[in-house]
Amino acid sequence: MKTRATNLRVRFPLFVFVSEVIIVALYAAFVTYDDQADAKFQTNQTIPMNNAVYRDYPVFTDIQVMIFLGFGCLLAFFRLYGFGGMVFNFLTATFAIQWAILVQGYFQFYYDGKIHLGVINLINAEFACAVVLISFGAVLGKTSPLQLLVMALLEVPVFAVTEWVVLNYLKINDAGGSILIHLFACYFGLGVTFVLHRPSLNEGHAKENSSYQSDILSVMGTLFLWVFWPSFNSALTFKGDDQHRAILHTFIGLSASTITAFALSTLLNKNGKITMADVQNVTLAGGVTVGASVDMMISPAAAYVLGMLGCTACMLGYKYLSPFLAKRCRIQDQCGIHNLHGLTGLISCAAGIWAILVADEEVYGPSLYEIFAHRAPVESDPQLEKLQMMIPGLKPGLGRTAQEQALFQVAAVFSAIGLAALGGLLTGFVLRLPYFASPSDDLCFDDRLYFEVPRDYDSPLQINNIMMEDTSA
Amino acid sequence: MKTRATNLRVRFPLFVFVSEVIIVALYAAFVTYDDQADAKFQTNQTIPMNNAVYRDYPVFTDIQVMIFLGFGCLLAFFRLYGFGGMVFNFLTATFAIQWAILVQGYFQFYYDGKIHLGVINLINAEFACAVVLISFGAVLGKTSPLQLLVMALLEVPVFAVTEWVVLNYLKINDAGGSILIHLFACYFGLGVTFVLHRPSLNEGHAKENSSYQSDILSVMGTLFLWVFWPSFNSALTFKGDDQHRAILHTFIGLSASTITAFALSTLLNKNGKITMADVQNVTLAGGVTVGASVDMMISPAAAYVLGMLGCTACMLGYKYLSPFLAKRCRIQDQCGIHNLHGLTGLISCAAGIWAILVADEEVYGPSLYEIFAHRAPVESDPQLEKLQMMIPGLKPGLGRTAQEQALFQVAAVFSAIGLAALGGLLTGFVLRLPYFASPSDDLCFDDRLYFEVPRDYDSPLQINNIMMEDTSA
Amino acid sequence: MKTRATNLRVRFPLFVFVSEVIIVALYAAFVTYDDQADAKFQTNQTIPMNNAVYRDYPVFTDIQVMIFLGFGCLLAFFRLYGFGGMVFNFLTATFAIQWAILVQGYFQFYYDGKIHLGVINLINAEFACAVVLISFGAVLGKTSPLQLLVMALLEVPVFAVTEWVVLNYLKINDAGGSILIHLFACYFGLGVTFVLHRPSLNEGHAKENSSYQSDILSVMGTLFLWVFWPSFNSALTFKGDDQHRAILHTFIGLSASTITAFALSTLLNKNGKITMADVQNVTLAGGVTVGASVDMMISPAAAYVLGMLGCTACMLGYKYLSPFLAKRCRIQDQCGIHNLHGLTGLISCAAGIWAILVADEEVYGPSLYEIFAHRAPVESDPQLEKLQMMIPGLKPGLGRTAQEQALFQVAAVFSAIGLAALGGLLTGFVLRLPYFASPSDDLCFDDRLYFEVPRDYDSPLQINNIMMEDTSA
């Protein structure tokens, strides 16, 4: 009966085909091209090389590599779950993006009765996708592909609503997505894994380990993420000096967290050796930690310090907090997303608030009111006109003070965490429905369940068995 | 005698050195820089950042990754032919590109007695190279590196002539290269493999299978191709909204075909499991299927449907048509290029023709005559001047109707298939010359024949042997 | 005692933390944003899309991939040192870049009491990093991570001083960095390895070999380098046609050296088989060889010939010179950097000098004085004004003749080699301090020493052992 319950043959294609029919119907009814992609809107004034595609597409391809190769390789670190890690990432990402185009489209790109599509929508959809993939990290190896698609189906709308509420009502600064991407994804994933708790896995699992090749593959994933992270953190900043700073800070933050990770890895290992899981994950902490203040004038040294702090928190989280959460709080966080995205995200938010509080015209010049758009004077304020002479195109803001803006940031952190955790818990309950074919405990972290595997699939283990027999003989 | 006949030591370097001497002589005699790369053509009006290199180079690097890493990893899926797949791809691609620079240069970039070279030539040459690599897929593992170079030597000119005939005489729309790249490459490859038919391989071959690592590597190749395919399909479109649409359609098409491939893979497998070969190949079908209409106003929903259709045809082809072709038609199509490039290419052409037939000014505005350049009024038509006021720089066309253009597309499909098949058959006969060192049947799919292999080369098999002995003992 | 002497637990984190405190203090004291990244410098005249970040960042990401994935995979070719190759590359590169930002910043980007930081600094720092990584190739597998960081700590300033002397006093042309990057890195690395000579390794080492998977991984590294090398060679040229030519020449040079490498590999192998080490290294020779003249009007054919020559020198170096250097000169050059960077670098310099000697206004037009900036007339020369009408913004030069410029190039070659070798020797002596935890001879090329390794770490060897036992039994 067990094997039947996890057989995908009917239920998985059925789910996909029904989804596809619904998606294609919604695309046909609601999705059209935006002005930059529609032939009809091109006039004799149009300069083709000024099309938005040339501004957005380079960033988009960088993020594509991160999503499909970066996450794909990184998640393939289990010895017997390399197919699952890389391939379910591919499946889930693709589904999440095409679904996010619709859901985010409704909230962000909907006017005249249509969702208007350009490469900028794809960038936004890949951010929504990154959220799903981070949450996936919490339940890696313990979920069927059908469960993953259902998770994407539910997480994307919860994320899109949270994004819409936070950006439209709370109006915050979060260029690198520390609040909306990392914190949201983390607490959603923890909510899901809390509900999907498997008591028997607390003692560890025979297949819950890596091989020499899978460790190397996973480091390649880390490197793809590392190399293009500046594009991720700067994709949605203002163009010009803001984006320039976002790139510099991300690079410096990552760079500081990388060497810190190596140092802490040897320091915390009883033999003074480097642990590959640290290289694969903790090195990246700096990319998250600089996120919330990534486009601000925080100074290169501050980005460096943020990288060190984030890395340290992340490393201590892996070492001490994750085991505690697993044993005491029923939270089995498979890839440690609470360390790499949660703790670092919180530090990032704190740094963002600090950066907002200290921001003044002396450092930023008049462009203070461009970066902190909600601090710009309101429409009726005579100050606005003066500023608009120095920054053409400056939009009226809300006249917030730095303190007010900081409070809204705090509100956003709590809203994002609250909505994410709630959404994650509810999603977890849905995923427990037997129809979604959750793997049995002993077939977790095992490609055999969902893939036709080649003959040599389990050879390293077999060798060890042979050798042990040899030794015992 | 057999080992001597496949020994490359003399004949391979000889072929390469002779080719190099000829190529370098032709470069010296005929290849110079184009206006954008020649120091002499820079005046005090030149704005360096307007150089064409900044428009073409980003697309070029994306295609570079596809050619060398995408194809390279994808073709390395055989357990004992990983070196061959990746390294012969490297060799063949490099040779094909430097040769295509000359041959295509003669047809497309030749004036004032010289071939004029810029990055745009390299993009075109990489397309010619993609053609050779697709055809290579039909004979993977069954050809010596010398045969591959000879194939590139012959295929590039046949392709360049076909391209020149189709673009200059039939004057068609084929932005994504469905006709000129995919159909041509497919039927050329099938022609070659038909002639190189090996009866003994119809029963399968002990080495014709993958390993756990090689399957993962091959998926990485798929991901490189997937991620950058929008650049491939949009490289030679008009700049501006046309290129923007090409990117969107390719992404949506790939995205639809990917989730369809997963669904069909589980549906058609008797255990409801995913087959890695499907993940490696069928997911990509959508990229080909949107090709012929990729820059047109087909709507995002249509791109989605094309992705689904292409994927379904491709999957059914792998399941039912390929075995039939191998058994009944002497066509041993090693990587199933007829499914991924042939069937999908035909659907793409049909979709392109449909898109041409329904295209009108209401949807496209005046830029209809830019995208469908051959439908623009002829030089003497007073209509032309009116259009030129709305689209500065519009060139006079042929005044074709939509129906006429559609017929020319049909003619192009048949010409491309015919010339490709004929070229492939003739090339096959040349490749059978004993001098070109074809591997014997039992050393197909085996790196030992052409490479110094490390000690652990065949270890997974050895383990299995040990284990079988153990079991039998 | 031996294991204690190589234990990193205290000394490695200590070194890293002390470095970080110093680096962060220096960043805080001296590093600020450059005009393109500083909010305060944006005025109502600023056009965000004209920010230098859009010119520099695409090249930067290409080089990022080369440094972290290209070098990382390439250096992971040892069977039991895959972690070391890829991960120490990651560590060393990150440390070198953040250190180079300071050191190069002091020499090149320091004014008003501050180092001014933009993406252009990161590109320069990645070049300094490439220097360190090339030198690393000479001692791969024989150095602790602590030694590598110390090497980076010392090499970066020696490099920055050499760069500053050569560019500011000798004022040379070296767009692709043949002198400053390749020759410097090579002779520095040889200096280090000369001092770190290990007599017992001259007989070879049981772990000094590759596995099937590691060979494939290493080829992937080669392909990453190959694909993006045109960006590397053209990153710091003049914009416009100069950069365009640099891309073309690099591509052609690599392409010629690749097929030559395959031909020579089969020719020089007694069984006519391809050696993977040649595919991994010798194919890349052309990228170095075109370096010194990469932006000049040398003609595409000359780039092709340079690729062939460089490849041949490199291949013969691997075959005959490296063993000689190891046996007779105490120079154990692990990755053969003397072949890939030294010999090719020398050819490149010779070609650069030849290109300088034959350069004239007939071929280059007035932009001769832009490319060869030091040949431009001096400030007071009336000729200057005439030229400035044809090339707006041409800066006064030194009025050098071609012969004078050539002599300065020669002086630069000798200075770079001399300073590099001296710096390398001194660095070698520092690295021999016992504190830096050099591995013992028998634990060279072995990940176990510095990493927690998974169970299957040494399985291929184990299999062979089993099999040999089987055979002997």
UniProtKB/TrEMBL annotation, chains A, B, C:
It is a multi-pass membrane protein. GO terms for molecular function: ammonium channel activity. Residues 25-433 form the Ammonium transporter AmtB-like domain. InterPro entries: Ammonium/urea_transptr, NH4_transpt_AmtB-like_dom, RhesusRHD. The chain crosses the membrane at residues 12-33, 59-81, 87-107, 119-140, 146-167, 179-196, 216-236, 248-268, 301-321, 342-359, 406-431. Its main location: membrane. It holds the Pfam family Ammonium_transp. It is found in: Cell membrane. Keywords: Ammonia transport, Cell membrane, Glycoprotein, Membrane, Transmembrane, Transmembrane helix, Transport. The keyword Protein transport does not apply. One of its GO terms (cellular component) is plasma membrane. GO terms for biological process: ammonium homeostasis. Functions as an ammonia transporter. May play a role in the elimination of ammonia in the gill. Belongs to the ammonium transporter (TC 2.A.49) family. Rh subfamily. This is Ammonium transporter AmtB-like domain-containing protein. It comes from Oryzias javanicus.
